């Protein structure tokens, strides 16, 4: 009761007293704090029962007022007093001893508000950054400590200040060899014995040897310069304290700690980036938690649940356990995993380039290789399906360049040389994943094809090089022999060529003489030919388009019976997707023209590569595969056809290339499918009406009724027709994009 009365009386006296000059007022409040330690005998009373919080608040107000009254950047007498008398050192010592109880909380708040409210740069001062550095070490020492909230606020304001002036981070890289072990605790009596003398205003810090790790500087030398610390044995206590707080049971503290780390990894100082990855446990935190969340997932999950769960942003992980469990088992665990994956991805994206590379490599080695690879290589179909669906979701979510690169190397290997049949199994995981595109389980095939569809849309050149381009580099899929050495011609073509002129499916206007060469497709203006008066190229591209549109015979077509299913419906999508692909591939060195023949090594036997081989094999069985499998196979092939690479374009979209013996192209594969279809059509009674009925059912225009014979074949024919229309639209869009961009 007496202490409360004294406090009220003191406030009344302060209110009635004439206003003192700011410096006198500031010194008065500081000495009031120091007198407490000299005069009080009750060191167990909480700090909130004293006037210390009020005096500290008044000191902050005075410093803020003083700065507001002065020119920008000018240091006033109150701030000079704080720096000269090492008040922050003294407060640090009192906070470390937590004397009186709760003092640590008050000190943290004072430091936080001082750094936040004062606009002039304070951290360059040795009497600021040194006690700040030591206070940082006190943060995160105890999990769920009562001061956790103040600790994280303090650490985050320090991080924000470093983000404003990144070079200052070098103050926070401490050389381990210079820092002695500090005592684990200090008695409150020691603090009281060494407190400021009331007549001199000198600080505790001048009389204590608590901070011998830095050279003592004269108070007159108010600032110091950071030096780059390239020593491998440096402590980065700011990171260590934040890492400790990421283990807090309070989710809000964890998010703030993660935000602080995000600021620190983005600092451009090379010494800090090196120290971050070599002398802290940041990589361990990222990977251990990622592994922990992954292992908490159910062994079996519905791929549709994995694919459709809402997008997750770290830090916005609001959830309801009961609602999540009602949607599907494991939703909460899945969201936690995806949320932490998003944090890892964003952290690596923001990080200094050297730190990003190290963190991404750690995720590859400790998560992808150690945890995911055994899951993907297992023989259990349920396990394969779940792990492949999770990998697909991971691929979709990763956006950082460094993490994407490491993930691609994990999945596909780092090899650059062309594939041969003998080397397809060189990388076991890559081989297994591609084989899963043709798995006995249709579900696994579809999910793996989706994975590759997702993968080839990522902005990473190595993906496309590894899967397809390295096999097409030398253009050795083309006939190499001089005309006189080629095999005898049959009807003007080699005996194994796709004979379009003589095929009854194609008209006379599809002569190879009117086709576009590989270079014409992508880079040059439409050529003038003696056979055609038009010089705008429309006749030629029309023939190219027709070569795809006429592949499926009329009796096997059903789209013209249904409104809104013409070839033109694909043009808008093809235009948008091609434009998007061009944006992605713009920074890659993809020449407009194919590699000149004289520079190609055409003597090397052509191998289409494992990935294209499996896709072509699947395409060749389109009449005998389930509808959903066919949709996914054609989706992957259409994505590859959209790529603006001249060799891929030539190989997939030029119907008239002269293939080397034993080679096949996408067009030749489709022609053989059509040949098989022609033989089978005549064996099925009422083929066309049945085909139309199946199409209408697939479009939802007809209700499901009695089963129709040959359903798989009929659905395959419909997919084939739509795929040919899509390829025609892609060819049209790519040709005109090239023609319009030509000089």
UniProtKB/TrEMBL annotation:
Pfam family, one: KELAA
Region (Disordered): 179-233, 480-537
InterPro entries (UniProt xref): FHIP, FHIP_C, FHIP_KELAA_motif
Limits of the FHF complex subunit HOOK-interacting protein C-terminal domain: 608-700
Composition bias, Basic and acidic residues: 179-192, 480-489
Biased composition (Low complexity): 217-233, 514-526
Family stated for the protein in its record: Belongs to the FHIP family.
PANTHER family (alphabetical): FHF COMPLEX SUBUNIT HOOK INTERACTING PROTEIN 2A, RAI16 PROTEIN-RELATED
The protein, known as: FHF complex subunit HOOK interacting protein 2
Organism the protein comes from: Lates calcarifer
Taxon lineage: Eukaryota, Metazoa, Chordata, Craniata, Vertebrata
């Amino acid at each position: 009761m007496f202490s409360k009365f004294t406090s009220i009386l003191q406030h009344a006296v302060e209110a009635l007293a004439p206003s003192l000059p700011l410096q006198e007022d500031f010194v008065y409040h500081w000495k009031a704090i120091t007198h407490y330690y000299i005069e009080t005998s009750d060191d167990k009373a909480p700090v909130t029962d004293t006037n210390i919080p009020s005096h500290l608040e008044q000191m902050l107000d005075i410093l803020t007022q003083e700065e507001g009254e002065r020119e920008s950047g000018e240091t006033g007498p109150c701030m000079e007093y704080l720096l000269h008398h090492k008040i922050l050192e003294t407060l640090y010592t009192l906070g470390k001893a937590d004397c009186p109880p709760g003092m640590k909380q008050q000190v943290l708040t004072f430091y936080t508000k001082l750094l936040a409210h004062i606009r002039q740069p304070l951290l360059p001062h040795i009497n600021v950054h040194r006690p700040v550095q030591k206070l940082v070490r006190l943060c995160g020492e105890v999990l769920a400590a009562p001061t956790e909230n103040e600790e994280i606020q303090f650490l985050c304001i320090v991080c924000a200040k470093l983000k404003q002036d990144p070079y200052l981070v070098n103050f926070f890289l401490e050389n381990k060899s210079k820092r002695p072990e500090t005592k684990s605790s200090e008695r409150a009596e020691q603090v009281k014995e060494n407190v400021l003398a009331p007549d001199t205003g000198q600080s505790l810090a001048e009389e204590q040897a608590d901070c011998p790790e830095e050279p003592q500087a004269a108070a007159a030398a108010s600032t110091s310069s950071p030096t780059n610390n390239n020593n491998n044995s440096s402590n980065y206590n700011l990171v260590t304290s934040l890492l400790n707080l990421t283990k807090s049971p309070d989710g809000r503290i964890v998010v703030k700690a993660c935000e602080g780390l995000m600021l620190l990894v983005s600092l451009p100082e090379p010494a800090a980036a090196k120290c971050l990855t070599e002398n802290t446990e940041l990589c361990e935190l990222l990977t251990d938690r990622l592994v922990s969340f992954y292992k908490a997932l159910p062994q079996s999950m519905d791929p549709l649940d994995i694919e459709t769960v809402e997008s997750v942003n770290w830090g916005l992980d609001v959830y309801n356990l009961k609602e999540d469990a009602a949607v599907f088992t494991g939703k909460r665990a899945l969201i936690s995993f995806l949320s932490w994956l998003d944090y890892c991805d964003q952290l690596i994206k923001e990080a200094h380039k050297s730190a990003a590379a190290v963190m991404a490599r750690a995720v590859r080695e400790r998560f992808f290789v150690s945890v995911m690879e055994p899951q993907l290589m297992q023989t259990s179909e349920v396990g394969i399906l779940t792990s492949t669906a999770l990998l697909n979701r991971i691929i979709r979510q990763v956006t950082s360049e460094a993490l994407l690169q490491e993930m691609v190397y994990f999945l596909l290997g780092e090899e650059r040389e062309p594939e041969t049949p003998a080397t397809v199994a060189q990388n076991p995981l890559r081989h297994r994943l591609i084989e899963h595109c043709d798995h006995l389980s249709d579900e696994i095939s579809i999910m793996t094809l989706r994975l590759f569809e997702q993968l080839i849309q990522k902005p990473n050149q190595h993906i496309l090089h590894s899967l397809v381009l390295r096999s097409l580099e030398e253009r050795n899929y083309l006939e190499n022999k001089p005309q006189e050495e080629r095999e005898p011609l049959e009807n003007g073509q080699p005996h194994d060529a796709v004979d379009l002129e003589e095929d009854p499916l194609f008209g006379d206007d599809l002569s190879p003489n009117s086709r576009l060469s590989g270079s014409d497709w992508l880079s040059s203006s439409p050529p003038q030919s003696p056979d055609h008066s038009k010089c705008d190229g429309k006749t030629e591209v029309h023939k190219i388009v027709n070569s795809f549109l006429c592949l499926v015979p009329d009796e096997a077509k059903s789209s013209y019976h249904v409104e809104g299913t013409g070839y033109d419906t694909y043009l808008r999508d093809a235009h948008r997707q091609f434009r998007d692909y061009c944006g992605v591939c713009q920074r890659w060195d993809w020449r407009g023209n194919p590699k000149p023949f004289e520079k190609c090594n055409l003597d090397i036997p052509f191998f289409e590569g494992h990935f294209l081989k499996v896709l072509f094999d699947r395409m060749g069985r389109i009449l005998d595969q389930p509808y959903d499998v066919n949709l996914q196979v054609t989706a992957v092939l259409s994505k590859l056809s959209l790529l603006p690479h001249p060799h891929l374009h030539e190989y997939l979209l030029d119907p008239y290339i002269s293939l080397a013996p034993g080679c096949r192209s996408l067009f030749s594969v489709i022609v053989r499918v059509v040949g098989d279809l022609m033989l089978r059509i005549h064996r099925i009674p009422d083929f066309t009406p049945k085909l139309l009925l199946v199409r209408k059912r697939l479009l939802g225009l007809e209700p499901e009724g009695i089963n129709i014979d040959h359903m798989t074949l009929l659905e395959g024919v419909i997919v084939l027709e739509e795929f040919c229309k899509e390829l025609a639209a892609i060819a049209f869009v790519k040709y005109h994009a090239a023609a319009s961009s030509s000089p």
